[in-house]
Amino acid sequence: MSVIKLNYGYYIEIDQLNYTLRQKYIGTKRTGELKDAVRTYGYYGDIRAAMKRYIELTQMDKLGEEIYSIEEYINIIEKSNKDALISINDALKAFPLK
User: Is the model more confident about 38 or about 72?
Assistant: First the structure.
């Protein structure tokens, strides 16, 4: 299995059947103790679909639960997309073209 590391704890696991988008994060046990955890966001048939969902999720992570003017919203989305594209570009360098 191959893994593409992305920003903010996101990564894509690649196997023969699909591309699985996941995120590592710090969760809490019922006792309140911290623990490492993983969220699975979906299983995709191609890398494009997995990357599209990754970009959507990073946008939502950046926006949070605030109220924004249209200019602020656009600036946040543009920054989020730029960061995502840099992450994707860096990840693809690990898979050189033949």
Answer: 38
